[in-house]
């Protein structure tokens, strides 16, 4: 009887000890003093960035002890200005912006450390329905393109040239309309064709105002279209935070890769309160189908060189920059290997 009581008492002590350790670990994870704040600015609000919102909504940043404060700058130049002026710690924007900053002689360059999307996110939309589309149908038409110097415009011109079309000779090319006003310009009757992001392209298709006939992302190949980046000084002073941030991004990328478009739409719908969840799912499915969402955060040399080729083709590459100068893959590689 005494032996039985002794065993029971020992078991109870072990149970209490395990419970205490678990409780302490749980407290460490949620202790406000251990949470590190990260100010993240994105170039625009887009379903194209679904893994970013999944990382927040599913608590992947929180699991890493990070409190991510998300803001939207609505423009590549505004995003970079926010980052450079210390209005944000990390930016999600096109990699071309880091090249522009470097070319201006910055002594604190902006470093790309985690890729989010790996294709262009725009689609070619026609005013009239076309059953058997070929790119030469664009010749002689009025084409409503994106602003000069941005990735959508550069990729657009790259794809057109790939199909034997000189954007400035074979088209009536319109590029003087602000990004936010391009959809309304097309809806009001400007242009035979337009280059649009989602969900606007699908919305126009649903409303009968346009028809998606081709994908610039499929045509242009893999590029570091949008990446997470930070100033070199921030990267050096906050190595632990950057690693935790990258780990959370990778978790989100894997979650997106292994879950359905409907599940992803449900996870991110609060970020798009004015968009029907079914439409969000349709857009996510379109991007998943063409491989737009990177499945890991590594920005490789081939993608970087493809980006510079596209910029050079558009006459927008200020200088060629080596991959190792503005890209840090060590963190992403470490996170992926874990």
The unreliable regions are: 1-30
Distance between the termini: 50 Å
Number of domains: 2
Which structural class matches the secondary elements?
alpha/beta
CATH topology of the largest domain: D-Maltodextrin-Binding Protein, domain 2
The overall pLDDT average reads 91
For the secondary structure, the number of strands is 10
The fraction of residues assigned to DSSP E strands is 15-25%
Could you give the order of the helices and strands?
A: HEHHEHEHEEEHEHEHEHEHHHHHHH
Percent of residues in helical segments?
40-55%
Integer-rounded radius of gyration: 23 Å
> What assembly state would you assign to the polypeptide chains in this entry?
single chain
Return the CATH class of the largest domain: Alpha Beta
DSSP summary: helix tally: 16
User: How does CATH name the architecture of the largest domain?
Assistant: 3-Layer(aba) Sandwich
Largest sheet features: 5 strands, mixed
| Principal-axes shape call | globular
CATH homologous superfamily caption of the largest domain: Periplasmic binding protein-like II
